[in-house]
Amino acid sequence: MxxxxxxxxxxxxxxxxxxxxxxxxxxHVLADRRxxxxxxxxxxxxxxxxxxxxxxxxxxxxxPGYRLPPxxxxxxxxxxxREHPGRIVxxxxxxxxxxxxxxxxxxxxxxxxxxxxxxxxRALDRVAPSAWQQHVKNQITADSYADFLERVLxxxxxxxxxxxxxxxxxxxxxxxxxxxxxxxxxxVVADDRDRDWNQLPTIFERxxxxxxxxxxxxxxxxxxxxxxxxxxxLLRRVNExxxxxxxxxxxxxxxxEGIVRAISAVDDLDPTPIPPLPRRAAEMAARVSKERAAxxxxxxxxxxxxxxxxxxxxxxxxxxxxDPPEMISIDVAVAAIEGVVALGMEGILAREAKGAAQxxxxxxxxxxxxxxANELSGRLLLRALVRRCLARLRLL
Length: 396
Prior knowledge:
By secondary structure, the protein is mostly helical. The chain has two domains: 12-224 and 276-310, Rossmann fold (3-Layer(aba) Sandwich), CATH 3.40.50; 229-273 and 329-392. The protein is built from 15 helices and five strands. It has helices at residues 23-32, 34-39, 52-59, 71-83, 100-110, 124-137, 145-152, 163-168, 170-178, 199-208, 229-245, 249-263, 279-298, 330-358, 366-392; strands spanning 12-15, 88-91, 115-120, 186-189, 302-304. A five-stranded parallel sheet has the order 2-1-3-4-5, with helices on one face. Helix 11 packs antiparallel against helix 12. The longest helix has 29 residues, at 330-358. The radius of gyration is 23 Å and the shape is globular. The termini are far apart.
């Protein structure tokens, strides 16, 4: 890291993640220090922790349950970035999912002479379990852990062509951006031993020409740590129900968000971690890890860290996986119910406040009365759904 020097004064540093590589922590640190960055002429645009909506607009795809923003959102954003004369840093895991064509468009739209890209490559034995639970949290999959590993780490000599590998495949990611940028403008963080991700803010300080420790947060910053196995299994079964009942994406997202927010705050005195990769998957991951380490060792891009730490020993891998959890603590179950209800009530209160502000004296119309009835029916349905989910987990 000592060789890192500050980027040009007008550089645009694009952090693409990928997911589960310390992105949430870094994004909240940057957002927390937005004002201090601005004082030094560095723009971290917007008010949100990350530029997710802009990346979705460019990509043409959003997270499940969210509206897809039109292409004009990215176009207007890129225009504003081109007009800013100083350094800019933007961050979204959505950029890791871009196709070759969309990556080229990002560079063209922001300015080919200004864009630099940075990404983090995480060891496969850690990122695969973490990615599974994140996919479950984000309602992307209802696959069991075993089925997920069978899909992304099957028997064979080469990694399959799946969305997981498009986003997490080291060689593919690096080559995609080397295809649209000179290699000296591509940075790869290849050592993820720092579990608290404190290394990332230090790297960004160097690249942005900031004083040491300026990117130390002034308040508690979320780490987006993985849930325990039993809690992920709870969410996975909710996803199964959502798919079987054909919930709308919006309803599914609200239910999952409410559950995740609440159960993440419950202390667990006897946690059940997601099991390590079983032998068959570990052997596949180890082969790919050797290939990606060898590739990064000879790539012309800036590699930060020791690529040897991306490899791992399969000798300690278990022969197989234990059965998924069938029980969950009553405290977590109560928190899950509370989380869904609380998030639903927040939405109800927000709509009521908005309606009151618009017309405090207006008489309810027939449409208003129907909406209230539908809202009540929705809440009753939600209660029944929660009871059904808990019953499936043998809690009632």
